[in-house]
Design goal:
Length: about 550
């Protein structure tokens, strides 16, 4: 599939850009024609930079290799590779062929891996050699062929295995099947949800949705800018950085993974000017000593998600502009701020073309200041997911009453800004009060001995919850729980102060660095968890009291 020799698609709907402007395979060919010598990608792993001409050639050759393995337009191509040139090849090659790119989480194995492959109904997977042996553990009737890159190919039972040499040998020519041109409403990718509340869902992402996700909130981004890609490219954050570069004629700097200690050196060496800083990454970086690489960083703009005091301090420390957005795999950055907003916790306001409401459990709209679920819809068709592949029931639940239901609790403040409260599934209810785990975590993470933390509900006496905070201390530190409570008491309402404090060497994380709270909830109160009530610590509206040696009390 190529944009060469075809007329530009024109729609009668002015809300939808033409395919020449938003369909990635056509954009790649256009960039190769107009600015083929410009750098598209710089790789931290040491591979040679790619120009846009290189990108177009890789797309054509990889499309031919995939076609030789039986891939047809509309097929799903599973990709199980780390960030790097091979993953980019498979992505752009699949799309050029008119196929759907379906990247898998590198941590998948066993039941989760089997579920994701079964849901895709794909016949081909392109996998990294170090991961491929896990395929022998799963039963996925549709899967017939595995192309193995980056090392020797293992034997995988009944699967046909193609090694790297054979795969690359077939990457010649351009004899691709004839089919209709790819359009903005066609599906570009399947993005799997995190699966923290059940099996992962396969989000259908049209070209227009991913184009908007990459471009709507980056007005300062130009062809002279370079996005840092440190989020996995099976995640919408990483994917949107690639599309942003192609859409603007800019470039990307590709890291295999985020590293706190290597971050500033990688940024400086690769010349990244724009980066998304998610979750606790800002806190990690702030707690590192300032180095020459940080002082001389080329970063000019940070997208902070969420907008926290630590994120703002990081931007100010390096002299960068910042902004924030709210987004999900299913949407296209529906809420956003302008540059350098001063309100921590705010997500901004609906961007042009988006309607947003805060509603109760019956979808009835709530008044300003009341907390409910954020629901969304877009003026332009295909600006958000049409649903979940192979799961009509989940699609119907998400899109009930014509609005997409985010599952996130929000409220609108007096200034009209939308403010995130919590994932509805993560909210904690204690003694008649609704508690945001997000807000608890912000305050706990402010303690200088805390590297990162997670607040979760654990079952208490009766039907309500107690707050457990699980802490990953700064390297070499051991936090006194009583000192933590002394720190927290003046910073939060008494009912939010955690009852339980647990310290772990490292929090369980997804490859996108999100804490896996469902694992912490399942573990609950462990033998090494400190319990303030067992320690005799009493919290009230006027502060707390503690007997001597209360920090030594451990819940048994």
């Amino acid at each position: 599939m190529s944009g060469e020799g075809r007329e530009e698609t024109v729609t009668a709907d002015p809300r939808i850009p033409t395919a020449e402007l938003c369909v990635t395979p056509r954009l790649i060919e256009r960039r190769a024609r107009e600015s083929g010598d410009d750098i598209f990608a710089a790789f931290a792993s040491g591979e040679a930079n790619w120009t846009y001409a290189d990108l177009a050639r890789e797309a054509r050759e990889t499309a031919a290799a995939l076609h030789a393995l039986g891939v047809q337009p509309g097929d799903r191509v599973l990709c199980w590779l780390p960030n790097g040139p091979d993953l980019l090849r498979i992505w752009v090659g699949a799309n050029r062929l008119g196929a759907i790119f379906a990247p898998l989480n590198l941590a998948y194995r066993g039941r989760m891996l089997e579920h994701a492959i079964r849901v895709s109904d794909a016949s081909l997977i392109v996998a990294e050699a170090g991961l491929a042996e896990r395929l022998a553990e799963i039963d996925a009737p549709s899967l017939r062929t595995a192309a193995i890159l980056g090392g020797p190919a293992p034997t995988l039972g009944s699967l046909k295995v193609v090694d790297e040499g054979a795969f690359r040998a077939s990457a010649t020519g351009d004899a691709l099947p004839t089919s209709r041109p790819v359009e903005p409403w066609d599906i570009q990718a399947i993005i799997y949800t995190s699966g923290t509340t059940g099996p992962s869902k396969a989000v259908l992402a049209p070209y227009l949705q991913l184009f908007l996700t990459g471009t709507v909130s980056v007005r300062p981004f130009t062809r002279n800018d370079r996005s840092l890609v440190h989020s996995p490219l099976f995640h919408v954050t990483g994917m949107s950085a690639v599309i942003r570069a192609i859409a603007t004629g800019g470039s990307i700097a590709v890291l295999e993974r985020f590293s706190t200690t290597n971050f500033w050196g990688d940024v400086r060496r690769l010349g990244a000017t724009y980066a998304v800083v998610m979750g606790s990454i800002a806190t990690f970086l702030l707690k590192q000593p300032k180095t020459e690489d940080e002082r001389e960083t080329p970063l000019k703009t940070l997208l902070l998600a969420p907008l926290t005091a630590d994120g703002r301090r990081l931007a100010e420390r390096i002299g960068a502009n910042y902004l924030t957005v709210f987004n999900m795999s299913e949407t296209s950055r529906p809420l956003m701020t302008g540059l350098n907003p001063g309100k921590d916790g705010a997500c901004g306001r609906p961007r042009p073309g988006i309607e947003a409401r805060i509603v109760d459990e019956n979808d009835c709209e709530l008044a300003e200041g009341q907390t409910g679920e954020l629901i969304l819809r877009a003026d332009a068709p295909w600006a958000m997911t049409p649903g979940y592949f192979g799961d009509a029931e989940a699609t119907a639940r998400a899109w009930r009453n014509g609005w997409f239901h985010t599952g996130d609790a929000f409220y609108i403040d007096a200034d009209g800004d939308f403010r995130f409260v919590d994932r509805i599934k993560d909210a904690i209810r204690r003694r008649g009060e609704n508690i945001s785990s997000f807000e608890v975590e912000i305050e706990v993470a402010a303690h200088p001995a805390v590297k990162d933390c997670a607040a979760v509900a654990v079952r208490a006496e009766g039907a309500e919850d107690e707050v457990l905070v699980v802490i990953e201390p700064v390297d070499g530190e051991r936090l006194d729980p009583l000192a933590l409570l002394t720190f927290l008491a003046p910073r939060m309402p008494h009912y939010m102060v955690p009852r339980y404090v647990r310290q772990v060497p490292a929090l369980p994380r997804t490859p996108t660095l999100r804490v896996q709270k469902h694992l912490l909830r399942a573990e609950g109160v462990t033998a090494d968890t400190w319990d303030r009530e067992a320690a005799g610590v009493r919290i009230g509206r006027d502060g707390f009291s503690a007997p001597p040696h209360s920090s030594e009390a451990i819940h048994q």
